[in-house]
Amino acid sequence: MGLFMILFTLIGGITLSAQSSINGTFSRKAGTIETTLLTFLTGTMFLTVFIVFFGKGNILALLEAPKWQLSAAFLGTMYLLLTVMAVPKIGVIATNIAGIAGQLVIGVIIDHFGWFNSLVIELDVKRVLALVFMIISLYFIYKGNKKSAEGNQA
Question: Which keywords accompany this UniProt record (predicted)?
Fold first, then answer.
């Protein structure tokens, strides 16, 4: 089952990069906020159909959730909005690497302190090195994108 989850996540990453690229291009015509709205409206319709046919949870439990947990919806919206804004300016790969680096940084902090009822996983040298390498890769990718963009304008 673990291998399938890795495969599904890999496919999810592929679709996320494709979506970022398409949304970034579309936002030039429709606008950033409008493109983000379209994504969420489409997702809402898609998930409504899935809930009707495959849902096994209790949608009314959303009303009983602690208010701080509902912030996740806002955070997801902000992620998409910021991604749509970034792709036309810095490219898909730099946007995705920056997003992943941000996820890893906050992820190790959440794990280290056990926030949000997560497992406590101590911050160690290997994790710090992984973060440093991610930031270095972001630097080189961004610089390469910038140099390539300058060369295309000449």
Answer: Membrane, Transmembrane, Transmembrane helix
